[in-house]
Amino acid sequence: MVARMTHNIRGALEGLPVRNCYGWLDSVVALYWISGIGNYKQFVSNRVADIQTKSYIQWGHISTAENPADVGS
Question: What is the pTM of this model?
Fold first, then answer.
């Protein structure tokens, strides 16, 4: 969801000086998947491939306690 949202926002801001796009995850496993190391079943493989096409997004880790996306849940 973060990759698609970032892609859509980036498109909406086309022409503006957006230099960097960051995606923050509290899942080390998901970061490992995005790095492209390993072979995965089709479900994960398809999603990882979609995320990797958006190479302008720089992925980083944030602890669960500091993740603002977890506040609502």
Answer: 0.76
Q: What share of the chain is helix, strand, coil (3-state, %, to 5)?
A: 50, 15, 40
Reported as type and span, the H/E element at residue 11 is helix 2-12
What is the residue extent of each domain of the chain?
A: 2-67
Per-residue model confidence as pLDDT tens digits over 1-40: 889 999 999 999 989 998 899 988 888 998 998 988 778 8
Q: 5: alpha, beta or left, given left = phi > 0 and alpha = psi -120 to 50?
A: alpha
> 72: pLDDT confidence band, cut at 50, 70 and 90?
low
Q: Which two tokens stand for residue 70?
A: 């977890």
Contact 36, 51 (CB under 8 A): no
Backbone angles phi, psi at 39, to 5 degrees: -110, 135
